[in-house]
Amino acid sequence: MPSPTEISAQLASESERRERLGVPAFAGGFLYFLSAIIVSATLSSAPTVGLLQGLQPALRGEADPAVSPRAVEVKYISHHAFALIAGSTLKSIALVVLTLVLLLLLDATRFRRPQTWAYARPLVLVGGIGLVVVNIVHQIVGSIRAHSFAVGHDFSSHAVEQALTKGAVNVGSQYLDLLAALALTAGMIVVSINAIRVGLLTRWMGVIGIFSGILILLPIGGATLEIVPAFWMLAMGMLYLGRWPNGDPPAWAAGEARPWPSQAERRSEREDGAPSAKGKGKPALASGADVAPPPELPASAKSGSARKRGRKRR
What is this structure's pTM? Predict the structure, then answer.
């Protein structure tokens, strides 16, 4: 258990780092989503080669045509290189901010839960920095190769493959991108799960963090699902700035783990605090527990009352 002095020093450090990272985290969410919009909008207008178009040279009897049907794709990428590089740069800036956000959250989590996986920090660092470098280098090198293709004289299928997918640079960057994304995803999942355990993140924020890590590794859905990591960064910016609805989770101010109650514990609390259903909503006199029974009348009085009722009926 850390001493009160250590807790005070840790809280002061966390407060300072949160103040510095709040606005960048908020801006990083916008940049991440903006980069997805720019890249998706640019590539959505790119010419595509259908099955029939791809088979036309073979139908004409040309095994290796001088001009590949996909040559127009490479030329399009060359002409729109600035937009693609700008989108990748914005995404890289957002990834730098995301790495810093995760490192702060991890440090706060490990202070409250020292048994948190020790390799989470290297994974976040290597994955985040690796993705930033590979993302920019791959886009710049790809744009240079596309430009060389567009101004050159070789438009064969081999030249197209070298410009788009093959070649040492393309293959190497693809493998490095996969490894970096895998490392960052694993680190983000570990940080999110442990942050939930100590109470630094609400459950739904932790789940969104896990899903965001998966989307970084498997960028499915285009710009539509890119809003999930962007939203998570925006929410973390609000949390770091102290603008979280209903206040920060208690674990931030306590300097120690404050786990969220489980569903069973919440149900038990509701049952213990609920009033008894027996006699619920009834006034006290209606229960009959404290009301004396009416007095018994003497036998003579009962018979007299019966005779009076009989005379009245006559």
Answer: 0.80
**What CA–CA distances, in Å, run from 187 to 116, 221, 230, 238?**
11, 22, 18, 22
- Exposure b/e, 286-306, CB count within 10 A at least 16 = b: eeeeeeeeeeeeeeeeeeeee
> In this structure, how many other beta carbons lie within 10 angstroms of the beta carbon of residue 159?
20
Neighbours of 129 (CB within 10 A): 16
Mean pLDDT within 265-284: 55
Mean pLDDT of the chain: 84
Cα–Cα distances (Å) from 223 to 42, 189, 232, 235, in that order, read 12, 22, 15, 19
> In which residue are the tokens 């940049």 written?
31
Cα 78 from chain centre: 34
Summarised one tens digit per residue, pLDDT across range 231-267 is 999 999 999 999 999 899 999 999 999 988 877 777 7
Of the candidates 255, 253, 226, the residue with the CA atom closest to the CA atom of residue 242:
253
Whether 251 and 199 have beta carbons less than 8 Å apart is answered as: yes
* CA pair distance 265, 260, nearest whole angstrom: 10
**Over the stretch 42-90, which tens digit does the pLDDT of each residue have?**
998 888 776 666 566 656 666 667 788 888 999 999 999 999 999 999 9
What whole-number distance in Å separates Cα of residue 111 and Cα of residue 124?
Answer: 17
Report the Cα–Cα distance between both ends of the chain, in Å, rounded. 95
Enumerate helices (H) and strands (E) in the chain, giving the number of each. 12, 0
